[in-house]
Amino acid sequence: MLSPTIHPLLEIPAQIRRQVFPDASLSILDFLKFPLPVISGVAPQHKTSQYFSNQTPTVEDITIIQKIPIPPAKTVADLVVACKVAVLSGAKSTKCQHAPSVSRQNLPMWVIPYWAEVLELRTTSRKAWLQAAEESMEEGERG
How far is CA 41 from the centre of its chain? Predict the structure, then answer.
C-alpha cells in the first residue's frame, strides 16, 4: 500500500474514499454486494511509464472512474512502485493504457492507490468472504 505522505497527488480524497470503499460496519452480505470496478483481463502491453502524464487530469468524476476496469494485478503492482518516482519527476495524471475506450483521458494520480486498494478488496477480502458464503450455503443444503 502506498503511503500518502509520499506526495499529496497520491492521496485518495477523503470524500471519495468514503464513497468508493465499503464501510467497515457493513454486513458480510452487503460487503459482497458492494459495487467494485472489474479487473481488466487484458494482458499488459504497455510500459509502466506510458501510464504517466505531465498534463492535468481531464476526468475527476468518481462515477466515471469507477466504471473503468482496473489494470491487471501485475500492472497495478508495477504502477504502485513507479508512481512515487513519476510524481516526483512531474507526473500529474494517469492514463488508462489498458482500457482503449478511455486511453486518451487523464485521471488523477490517486487513481493508482485506488486501483491497488480495490484490487486488494477484490482478490483478498471479497474472495475469502465469497468462499465462506458458498461453503455456508453448501452446508445449509446438506443440513
Answer: 14
